Amino acid sequence: MITTLHDAVAEHVHNGDTLALEGFTHLIPHAAGHEIIRQGVRNLHLVRMTPDMVYDQLIGSGCVTKLTFSWGGNPGVGSLQRFRDAVENEWPCTLEIEEHSHAGMATRYAAGAAGLPFGMLRGYVGTDLPKHTTTIKTVECPFTGEILAAVPALNPDVGIIHAQRADLVGNVQIWGLLGVQKEAVLASKRSIVTVEEIVDELPEVAGAIVLPSWVVSAVCHVPNGAHPSFAMGFSARDNTFYKLWDAISKDRDAFTAWVDKHIMGTADFAEYCESVGIS
Amino acid sequence: MITTLHDAVAEHVHNGDTLALEGFTHLIPHAAGHEIIRQGVRNLHLVRMTPDMVYDQLIGSGCVTKLTFSWGGNPGVGSLQRFRDAVENEWPCTLEIEEHSHAGMATRYAAGAAGLPFGMLRGYVGTDLPKHTTTIKTVECPFTGEILAAVPALNPDVGIIHAQRADLVGNVQIWGLLGVQKEAVLASKRSIVTVEEIVDELPEVAGAIVLPSWVVSAVCHVPNGAHPSFAMGFSARDNTFYKLWDAISKDRDAFTAWVDKHIMGTADFAEYCESVGIS
Amino acid sequence: MSEYTTDELMIVNAARQLGALAVAGKRQCFVGIGLPSTAANLARRLYPIEPVLIYESGCIGSKPSRLPLSIGDGELAETSDAVVSVPEIFAYWLQAGRIDIGFLSGAQLDKFANINSTVIGSYESPKTRLPGAGGAPEIAASAGAVMVIMRQSTRAFVERCDFRTSIGFGDGKGDRERFGLRGGGPKWVITDLAVMEPDPDTCELVVVALHPRITREQVVAATGWDVRFADEVAITDEPTATELDTLRALQAA
Amino acid sequence: MSEYTTDELMIVNAARQLGALAVAGKRQCFVGIGLPSTAANLARRLYPIEPVLIYESGCIGSKPSRLPLSIGDGELAETSDAVVSVPEIFAYWLQAGRIDIGFLSGAQLDKFANINSTVIGSYESPKTRLPGAGGAPEIAASAGAVMVIMRQSTRAFVERCDFRTSIGFGDGKGDRERFGLRGGGPKWVITDLAVMEPDPDTCELVVVALHPRITREQVVAATGWDVRFADEVAITDEPTATELDTLRALQAA
């Protein structure tokens, strides 16, 4: 249950898996993404509403052959350079993309969490997305005859999130912006949660939800494991680092050198933090 | 926005309306139900997952011609006597019933809150419910071909709930067992919320949700307005009163005498409390 | 051996089964109020690995110090690992297949373990109007396995339910598969006289154990169908002093 | 009259519109990050009745003291009336029709106010891969009305979008109705040169106002279609010192 991030990734993440490292600007599991790069996992199908820096790193490192997403950018900064290079120039390899809207992706996760084969929404109508995305169909309301958009449930092999706390049993506590993380964990066959701290007992926190230990496969103690994203109550978003990433990721060699030095060249997230100079 | 329960009911509840007074053993809006009886509203279509004492009172008082529900009993005690008398003997009038399961009703409220015409679930299969309930149909998954149960959205004219707190603006705070109250309010065209207290600003409470004032039509200050149900943080469930109700409601005359004396014979909930001797 | 009631006997035997299941890793138990809740809370107190109690009111991992009168007692929310909305408990937790054991009771049970909690008599003009379905139909459909606890009588244990509120095995073997139900269906029916399990070949409930000093004749007399007995019918253990003391303390609390 | 940039001019004019809408009772505003968020937060500070800011990260009624760099900045959650999950914000709040104003921007806008934020060039081999749809398609479909804020240029204001990420009026009048969209669609396009609104008869965007000292020639030169002007073209008011000081203080915070 409670283990190291190295062992959790080694046990649960395999070549060819479909992974959802979720986080909606808040609580993005960067440390887990780095460990997946370190362990050289390949042919991954990554799923995420808002692929950002850590997905850029996984894509640029050649771990990813397919991406299912709804918004791929560097929030508040601009483009996701490695993602763009993969789509525009197939570097370092061809990246198949399956593109949805946020509402559609959220509906797909919720359907997956609920054990339904699909979800429906008022969406996509009049847009060009259905022309290019085969996982957008329609369903008719048996009562009103209305036509709604239908999207298939998402059920990743592994759901990976970062949270504030876990107790010794492995119950996970999350508060602040919750994004779609609960659904991502519940929709996935296996799940890994990195946490800021592990405590004897979870204190009450306003706005917090708890994921019982029995829906989580592994809990790993990784302080600041969301950096440069943040964990409300523990850290602030490192906006400077996001801006810095734009420069690092623009150039293939600069990117590769950065990954070699700071991720491949470090044993774990603690060493990574020293290496990039964050406390 | 913030008004008396008398005025809120007079303005928002009309003969022939579809009403959902929701509450899942916790936070049941008894005071609001009493005010509806006092104002002599008729031909109501009542909707609720768990119709209990207050629906028994509304039915026995002749306010109700249709009930849509999934479990009608006196929790922990037994039958709902007035409900049974209406169904078995059409007293005081014929009561049409539309019967679902909890999962189906919850799905219907959620669809209503989400602005969808219907909701779907894995349910009802192999039961006799679809033979008698016309609002249970099926829908086919356009991706897997699986057949799922489909139920129409619930969109009551008025959603009525009891909550712990509101602020001066009318933002409503609810914690503890949340039941389906949020969905009931969001699915309804209008809504009335009775609260234990009105404060300048809502303090943070673990496990609390907030309904913004702009999705609520009226907020009424009615301390203990859920009695004999309870409001976590303010009162405990009055189990004795639930047991007592069984005796009162068993006999038509005893029931009518009770309603005449304690509800029709009182001006508001405060007088009712004195009349029945609850603090 | 101390004195005990047949209800205590029934509850203790249900708790033993839940305890054995928890030890075997089947911990998540979706419990209705009344006998199921009492037995589940007894099991929590008696066995090294506690069942995880899940109530339809949205309580996950409840650890009540006293028995709740209703599924919504404050005690349940205050002692839970998590409290979620009612739509969520049914969609994300029950429907998604996270429940190992659905623990039900009812007014009528038939020989294929279908349950009636809707009406006695016809639906249109019922002799007795019962509370209705509640969460039972989807618990019976989706839980990994279902345990039923009911007092046995010819009125309650019938050839065919007046109304099928929750499906057991329908009209017999193969129906659950035909209906595409994901849950395993009823595995144990525990009464105040005996323990029944579905026959692997027919899915008809057969008596696999009798409680101490209960005769086959008593069971036959209390069953509304021509009840069959397994080749080997066990006798359940006497309730121990610990089991009875714990149960009584729980009910007194 | 103080100096100001064209971006400030654009933001101030958008804030004025939001302020007028809030006073008219259209308060619930679903805002994207960047220009929309800046204008919406400026309006919150300038007008007696504040717009209610709703962000797709699940924040309802946010009152940030400084401009968020991302829709997920902690500041947004900490200052909100309510924080809900992402599935909920789209299903219960946007899709259900609780949003008065959807406030969008994009990389391309065409003459029927359709927006492209997906690709420049072909989808299969794009010249430029943009971030993608995000929440925009459903905001454009479901919001009561849509306001667009974009810097005007022939690259951005095109005859037809390379990719239709979010629908305005499709191929013209009647398309929204044909598609069964519940929202009212784009009502205002505010640029650094002018204000455009859909022609009631054709739904094509026409210039209804010019910013101070901007000529029609400048607008024509910055528009990729044969842009038309309303019979009466107004001139927007100069930004006031209060508007500019408030905006600058907001951006400096």
Describe what you observe in this structure.
The complex is a heterotetramer, with two copies of chain A (279 residues) and two copies of chain C (253 residues). With 279 residues, chain A is α/β, with parallel strands linked by helices. Chain A is built from ten helices and 13 strands. Chain A has helices at residues 5-12, 30-38, 53-60, 81-89, 102-113, 129-132, 181-187, 239-250, 252-264, 269-276; strands at residues 2-3, 18-21, 44-48, 64-69, 96-99, 118-121, 137-140, 147-152, 158-167, 172-174, 190-199, 209-211, 218-221. In chain A, the strands form two sheets. In chain A, strands 1, 2, 3, 4, 5, 9, 10, 11, 12 and 13 form a ten-stranded mixed beta sheet that branches. A three-stranded antiparallel beta sheet of chain A has the order 6-8-7, with helices on one face. In chain A, strand 4, helix 4 and strand 5 form a beta-alpha-beta unit. In chain A, helix 1 packs across helix 2 (30-38), helix 2 runs parallel beside helix 3 (53-60) and helix 5 (102-113) packs across helix 7. The longest helix of chain A is centred in the last third of the chain and has 13 residues, at 252-264. Chain A is globular. The model of chain A has no long low-confidence stretch (mean pLDDT 97). With 253 residues, chain C is of the alpha/beta class. In chain C, 30% of the residues lie in helices and 24% in strands. Chain C is built from eight helices and 15 strands. Chain C has helices spanning 6-23, 35-46, 74-78, 86-95, 136-142, 175-179, 216-221, 241-252; strands at residues 28-31, 52-55, 59-62, 82-83, 101-104, 108-110, 115-116, 119-121, 126-129, 145-149, 157-158, 186-190, 194-198, 205-210, 228-235. In chain C, the strands form three sheets. Chain C has a ten-stranded mixed beta sheet with strand order 4-3-2-1-5-10-12-13-14-15, with helices on both faces. Chain C has a three-stranded mixed beta sheet with strand order 7-6-11, with no helix packed on it. In chain C, strands 8-9 form a two-stranded antiparallel ribbon. In chain C, a hairpin with a 4-residue loop joins strand 8 (119-121) and strand 9 (126-129). In chain C, helix 1 packs across helix 2 and helix 2 (35-46) crosses helix 8 (241-252). The longest helix of chain C is centred in the N-terminal third of the chain and has 18 residues, at 6-23. Chain C is globular. The mean pLDDT of chain C is 95. The A-B interface holds A 115-118, 120-122, 135, 137-144, 146, 148, 150, 152, 204-208 and B 115-118, 120-122, 135, 137-144, 146, 148, 150, 152, 204-208.
